[in-house]
Structures are given as C-alpha cells and as structure tokens.
Amino acid sequence: MKKLLAILLVIMLALPCISVTAWAEGENEVYHGSDYAGAMTGHWDSMLVDGVEIGAGTQIQTYIVSSNFRIEEQANTLCVRGWAVCDSEVRSFGYQINNDAPVFKDEFSVETEQAIYDAGTSIGAEYGGRFVVDIDVSELKGKNSIAVLLDTEDGIYTVSLMVGFDLEFDFIQKGTESEPTPTPETMETAEPVIVRFNTVEEVDDFFLFSNYNSNVTSIDFDEEKKCAVIETSAGLDPNVKLPFGQIADDDTYDMESIDTSVYKALLLVGRFDYDTILNSDQDVIGSFYFTTDADNTLTESKNLIYTYERTDGLQFVVLDFSENRFWKGSVDDCRFDYFAKTDNDCTYDFYLLGFFSDANEANAFAESYKEIGDAIFPTPEPTPTPTETPEVTAAPEDTTTKEPDAVIPTETADGKETSDKPAKKAGCGGFVAAIPALALAVSAAVILRKKKR
Q1: Is the whole model's pTM more than 0.90, yes or no?
Q2: What does the DSSP assignment read for 404-448?
C-alpha cells in the first residue's frame, strides 16, 4: 500500500512538467490577415489536387473568385503554394480546417528568393517567405472551410493576399455525403426592386450620384430607345457607379436599403454593338464589383465576372450572390464594369436593373421581359384631378364632358409596338417593385422616385 501511494505521489508531482499538445482555444485563436494592424501581404501562386495543378498557375486567385471560393474535387491531398511577408516575425506557416486546431510544420517553409524579401521591404515587412502547405483532406466529407495561416509573434493570422482577400476557401469532397442541410422555413418571396431607365428624370436622378466613372464621356437619355445611353471611350475597365447606398441614404428618394439576406440576385439588361467592342475574336466580358455596409472596399473577392452573348440584341446578365461569403449587410455603392475593355469608342445602352430573391426569380423575369418588354409593367392609372367645391348659385352645374387623355403607342425594349396606353406623365414608373416574376405579366408599383420638395 505504501508503495502504491509513493507511485501516485510521483505521478502527481510529474504532471505539471508534462507538455500537453492539445489545442487550447483562445491561446491559438486565428484572426483574419485582412484585419492585421501592421504590414502584411502575399500571393497565392498555385494549388495542386493530388499533384495536379488547377486554376492555370498564377491565375489561381482569379479562378477561386470565379468559383465563389469553392473547390469541389475528389482528393487525398491539397497543396497550396505561394508567399507572404509580414512586419512581425513569422515562426511558421500552416493551415486550419473548419475551427479545428491549426496545423504548423517547419517543412511548410521553403527556400525564398531575394525578390520576395525585397517586395516585403518595400512595405516595411521583413519577415516571411515562400510556403508549400500540404493539407491532408483524405478523411474529409462534404463541405469544409480551409485557410492557410501564419504563426507570428503578434498571433495567428490567415494569409492576406495583395488582391484584397484572405487565403481561405471551401473544399467539397466530391462524391461524399455531407451533413443534411436543414430545410429552411418557408419564406414569402420578396418583391423585386427594379430600376427602369425609361425617362430622362429617372436617368438624371439615378446617375446624379454616379461620379468617378471610368472611360465614360457622358450618360444621357435616349427618347427613342427609352434607355440610358453611356458614351464610352476606348480603354480598360470602362465602368459606372451604381449608387445604391447613396440613394438609400438620401431622404428625398423613396428607396430603402437593399438587404442582402433578402436579395441574392441582380439582373442587368443592356445592349451594345458586339463587333465594335474588341478588334479580336475574344469573348466580350464584363464584371460587377459590389460593396456593402459591412465592407465598403472594392476587392476581387467581391467581383462577379460574366461573359456576354454574341448578339446585338438585348443582353440579360443575372448575377448570383448566394454563394459569396462577403454578401452581407446592406448593399452600398457598386461598380459596374460593363466591359473588361473596349478597343474602340462605343456606347452601352442601359435599360434596366433589378434585385431579386434568387437567380431563378431573376431568370424568370428576364424570360418574360424578352417576350413582352415593358408590357410586363402595368400602366399606372392616372391620378384624378381634384374637383373644386362649387359655390352655391342658382345657375345649373356645368355638365361639359372633358376630353379623354390622349393615347400614344408604346414599344417594348426590342422596338415592337404594343397596344395603346394612356400617355405617361414624366417621372412615374421608372423605379418599380414587382410581385414574383414567374408570372408572365408582372404587377408592379412605383417605389423609387425623387420626392417632391
């Protein structure tokens, strides 16, 4: 018995000296590199899935943005290559899967050329180097979040890349079962918020806030086409600001903030002469940078890139934000790069934009608009003129019948004449909200126009 007590006493005395390798939350808390207070930057060079490179080498950063930060492959190992520099001493590179313990290994740090250190010195970041991080994903199932990390004297951070986002992505193990997704509660579909540039007032009022546009020589209203016409000079990234945040903040307009939790898709309707944009046979592409009140910086992580159809007819572009991790809060001012570049002076005819609950709603509306154009919007009933109270008199009341309102033919956006409608008064109907676009004819009401002062 005495011998047993002695053994227990030795074990108890030795326990405080034993190093426990378990991860303690708080001691190894991971922070976003984009929130780092000092100097940090880096580059994601490439990614290999079981030894096979994806993303076209140095274009992996563009690849991951266009893939909504998702990589779906069947894999045992992912290898992430790149470099990072920091003004705090970097002890090691590593990775984290979901919220598990970070994994750091000395072999993740590899030989670094002087050019990397020179790039760091230029911003006051003398530590860091190249990394080759091998990540074991053989046991992962379904969808998992992965981040590449730096262990610094100031804490553990995700690698912040010079393109404006952190080295984080979702990995989906192809062919595996993930946890069942809870069935969302049935929610009433939100009415779309649609801006139709069909009057000079609507064009002037909306683009009043649109300054600092690039390669834009003028924004005018075309009475015949019934749309905004953006005159553009040749060059890279011609773009125009879509000032959703400023309009929502201006109390002279009847427009509230666009809630990203409600609206997940945006429809853009425009037209241009396809063959005049590029001198080569390359596809004409465009992009859309968004900002929100949660993060109002313009970065590639908040850029959606798309390709136009090879047509001179109306272009219908549906942007789906549902998988973008930065689509949070309320929509702020956005940048619409309607072309990635144009080799010649040109014009972009801007007919309509609209926020919808999801991409299906946006596509359904687009199909209806292709068929019937502006007839999808109901004609607003004319506001009756108030009748003055007649004075008491012995004379009989005036029973003269007023002439009916003049009627004018209307056209669809494709130039097809539709049935006659009462002449529309300036300033009405440009900004509308419609009930679900699955119906062919959309019931709508004016929700955004400049208030009378």
Answers
A1: no
A2: PPPEE--B-TTS-B---EEPPPTTSSSEEEES-TTSSSPPEEEEE
